[in-house]
């Protein structure tokens, strides 16, 4: 029965639910490909996968149309239901943060493991994702690879050699001039006083997904027909809590989408 359920799962973005033989919800997950991710759970040899394989007897799912809505939906559901296998995951999925630091009066953007006593600009799931995103930010805002700890040298960074850095690494650009661009990046990627509908793929070809932020507050998400007037989008938003995790998800989305 379980094998048949897995084979019938769709290869689309969404949230999936694992239940034990008593039909208790024991795990909630999300993926851009539900079927592929569930198969990984049932073919894995790590401790968590083996526990899931022993306990799980039923699977359900909800399509979300996009990874962003899947992330937001999963985050809220885990807080609401606190499934046993999710509670066992003590570490957040977001392991790395982007932090501001002072580098001889220049504002540096550095990646490091997240700590509770420091506020970060945004978060990432892996060091690779964080580094790749910071390289794109550095390029898009003409920042310095050396100051951002991406290029280790006593002299000028590689970006300076290809005219993508204005020379902050060798003091040719003043901290005041350089920091203006760093601050512009930070301001462009904050939720404060920010109102926007994010329009995303829907669960079928005739639909769109919506995520709504109002005056810097995450309000929720929903779905509507593609032909729906923009002035009516608000009617389709399902109210959700503006949590710390939701804000992290949204800021990460803003930064990665703008710096692809």
From TrEMBL:
One of its GO terms (cellular component) is excinuclease repair complex. SMART domains: GIYc. GO terms for biological process: nucleotide-excision repair; SOS response. SUPFAM superfamilies: GIY-YIG endonuclease. Keywords: DNA damage, DNA excision, DNA repair, Endonuclease, Excision nuclease, Hydrolase, Nuclease, SOS response. GO terms for molecular function: endonuclease activity; hydrolase activity. The keyword Lyase does not apply. Gene3D superfamilies: GIY-YIG endonuclease. Residues 11-87 form the GIY-YIG domain. InterPro entries: GIY-YIG_endonuc (IPR000305), GIY-YIG_endonuc_sf (IPR035901), GIY-YIG_UvrC_Cho (IPR047296), UvrABC_protein_C (IPR050066). This is Excinuclease cho.
């Amino acid at each position: 029965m379980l094998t048949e359920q897995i084979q019938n799962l769709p290869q689309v973005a969404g949230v999936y639910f694992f239940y034990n033989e008593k039909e208790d919800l024991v795990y909630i997950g999300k993926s851009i490909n539900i079927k592929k991710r569930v198969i990984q759970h049932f073919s894995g040899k790590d401790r968590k996968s083996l526990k899931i394989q022993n306990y799980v007897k039923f699977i359900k799912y909800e399509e979300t149309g996009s990874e962003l809505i899947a992330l937001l939906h999963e985050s809220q559901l885990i807080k609401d239901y606190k499934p046993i296998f999710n509670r066992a995951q003590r570490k957040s999925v977001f392991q790395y943060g982007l932090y501001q630091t002072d580098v001889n009066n220049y504002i540096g953007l550095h990646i490091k493991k997240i700590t509770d006593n420091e506020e970060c600009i945004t978060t990432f799931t892996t060091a690779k994702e964080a580094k790749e995103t910071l390289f794109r930010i550095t390029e898009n805002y003409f920042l310095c690879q050396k100051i951002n700890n991406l290029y280790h040298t006593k002299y000028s960074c590689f970006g300076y050699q290809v005219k993508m850095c204005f020379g902050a690494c060798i003091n040719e650009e003043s901290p005041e001039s350089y920091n203006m661009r760093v601050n512009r990046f930070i301001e462009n990627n904050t939720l404060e006083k920010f109102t926007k509908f994010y329009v995303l793929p829907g669960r079928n070809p005739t639909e769109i997904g919506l995520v709504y932020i109002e005056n810097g507050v995450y309000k929720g998400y929903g779905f509507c027909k593609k032909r729906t007037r923009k002035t009516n989008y608000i009617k389709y938003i399902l109210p959700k809590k503006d949590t710390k995790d939701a804000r992290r998800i949204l800021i990460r989305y803003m930064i990665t989408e703008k710096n692809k």
